[in-house]
């Protein structure tokens, strides 16, 4: 029986943000074909490195893995957006340093996950929904650096990518500026199911799924 496991952070473990509504794992179980199982190993608040420990809780019959991680790591660098710089080059240098550390951690995590030798997909970090225009623009610009790392590493590994930036593209997809609502969760699950149905993991070729 096919068994998909969700690893990562609150993109998947969003129950606390949708009280009275279905969370992502409930929506995924409902959306999958009846022969499939789904398990949540993702934990709200997790960073990239935590995915390695989550792998210790994988069900023995897991057949597919989907990882959404990195948003909290990027959030940990939010202070960069308020720092002063004497030039654009200095500002870019600070972002480059942060993204280099991000890439190192993500690479180590992805290698650990892929060592399980199970079909695996990863997710890009979606944009936040900050009410203040300047904060939103800066966050989107900064996230480009971190998402570039994810896209690069996914392409090198030949795993499919769920681009949450395009999947969760409406205000109603967010329960707050950084967490998915039930509407956003439904979109995410629709994309996961489509990816599981359509992607040929044996080809080790990266394809991007946006719906």
Would you kindly provide a written description of the structure presented here, covering whatever features stand out?
The chain is an alpha/beta fold. It has a single domain, classed as Rossmann fold, CATH 3.40.50.1110. The protein is 43% helix and 13% strand. The chain has a six-stranded parallel sheet, sandwiched between helices. Helix 1 crosses helix 7. The longest helix has 27 residues. The two termini are 25 Å apart.
Features:
two-stranded antiparallel sheet, 8 strands, 211 residues, 43% helix, Rossmann fold, single chain, globular, 6-stranded parallel sheet, alpha/beta
Q: Uncertain regions: pLDDT < 50 for 5+ in a row?
A: none
Q: Give the amount of beta strand, in percent.
A: 5-15%
Class based on secondary structure composition and strand pairing: alpha/beta
- The first-level CATH class name: Alpha Beta
Radius of gyration: 17 Å
State the helical fraction. 40-55%
* CATH architecture annotation name: 3-Layer(aba) Sandwich
Distance between the termini: 25 Å
Number of helices: 7
Strand order in space, largest sheet:
2-1-3-4-5-8
CATH topology name, in short, is Rossmann fold
> How would you sum up the major sheet?
6 strands, parallel
Mean pLDDT across all amino acids: 93
Summarize the helix and strand pattern as letters: EHEHEHHEHEHEEHE
Q: What is the β-strand count?
A: 8
Provide the number of structural domains: 1
């Amino acid at each position: 029986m096919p068994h998909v496991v969700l690893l990562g952070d609150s993109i998947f473990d969003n129950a606390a943000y949708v009280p009275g509504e279905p969370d992502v794992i409930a929506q995924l179980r409902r959306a999958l074909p009846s022969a499939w199982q789904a398990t949540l190993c993702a934990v709200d608040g997790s960073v990239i490195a935590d995915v390695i420990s989550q792998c210790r809780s994988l069900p023995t019959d897991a057949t597919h893995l989907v990882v959404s991680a990195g948003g909290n790591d990027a959030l940990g660098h939010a202070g960069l957006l308020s720092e002063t710089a004497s030039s654009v080059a200095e500002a870019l240098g600070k972002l480059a340093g942060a993204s280099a550390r991000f890439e190192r951690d993500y690479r180590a995590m992805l290698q650990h996950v892929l060592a399980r030798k199970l079909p695996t997909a990863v997710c890009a970090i979606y944009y936040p929904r900050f009410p203040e225009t300047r904060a939103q623009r800066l966050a989107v610009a900064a996230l480009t650096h971190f998402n570039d790392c994810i896209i690069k590493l996914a392409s090198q590994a030949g795993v499919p990518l769920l681009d949450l930036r395009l999947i969760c593209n409406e205000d109603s997809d967010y329960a707050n500026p950084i967490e998915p609502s039930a509407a956003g969760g439904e979109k995410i699950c629709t994309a996961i199911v489509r990816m599981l149905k359509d992607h040929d993991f044996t080809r080790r070729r990266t394809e991007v799924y946006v719906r």
